Model the fold of this input.
Amino acid sequence: MPIDLKDVLEALPDGVIVIDAGGHVVDSNGEACRILERSAETLAGMPLAEALEAFEPMATQVAAALRDGTAMIAREIGIQSRSGRRSTLDIAVSPLAGGPEGAVITLRDQTVSSELQHLAAQRDRLQAFGHIAAGIAHEVKNPLGGIRGAAELLGQWSSEERSRDAASLIVGEVDRIRALVDELMVFAREDQIALEKLNIHWVLDSVLDLLSVDPLAKSVEIERLYDPSLPEFRGDPDRLKQVFLNLGRNALQAMEGPGSRLRVITKMHLGRRALDADGRPIPAIDILFADTGPGIDAATLAQIATPLFTTRAKGHGLGLAVARHWLMRHAGSLEIESEPGSGTTVTATLPLRRLEPGIVKGASQEVPDAPTPLPSLESKRS
Done:
């Protein structure tokens, strides 16, 4: 029995697009349709430029290769689809018969591999920082105790008010340093997360109610845009409150003046899903904190979640790092998107997991949760 070329194309793990000499799509397989978010019927006969119009810079690179009639390979090209889904692709353009007869374009989705490498690198950095923090704590906390004790004695023995004030200042600064060291230790300790069934909107509401009375929120409109269909899932409400408080306060600190707005959005995660031990995809949700602040330049953005990196005079540089730490302990992730003048959006992604029957609170063995719809929560502003 002769082999059908269409069956061959559909069997390939990569997306394949065949175009004619005029740059129109002649054929495409299922993986290409998934990546381009168009059906094979829609793509058939469509100009390639139109098929790729939402995929800059990929479209520009492909067009240049086709114009020159040369083969081209580009690796790890970041794209954003029409639905807003972000992907990482390897792209290859292979002209047929030197170019005049058309070309074959292959698209290899590297999103999962790229995300896993990114998460592994983040985890390694946090673990390395944890070892450093543990060493700092050991070397610093013991002498701090001696300094504090000596300052207290000086304050008690001194008869001069100025000397007592100086001793009190030393005690206060020592306490501040010890508190900072304790915060650093979150990266060194393997604290268990206390998992329990929760409604993400109730957690967010408790956080936003606190933020709404913060002096920083005086001229900021806080808008809640919740997806009421999100299911309940297992998570640590206290740790997640800490995550969202850090994200919310960072957003408020970035904004000033009338007209400022913080939008908190919940929705199902549309990107690639992680797989459980049985190879089943694990659904996830996104929680977005989108501010109207001045935005962040690329150089700062690359370091913004690094522990102890801060652009504020009185900042410690731990808020985003701690948030990322607790999200990763939930098998989630933190992504930051920003451009100068366009505000900043921080997205926390959490897998929808539940405990195996019989697992006690605080254990870490989890499987995907069954979708239980949340009570309907309308969008509201505060």
Remarks:
- The domain at 5-109 is CATH 3.30.450.20 (Beta-Lactamase).
- The chain has three domains: 5-109, 114-187, 196-381.
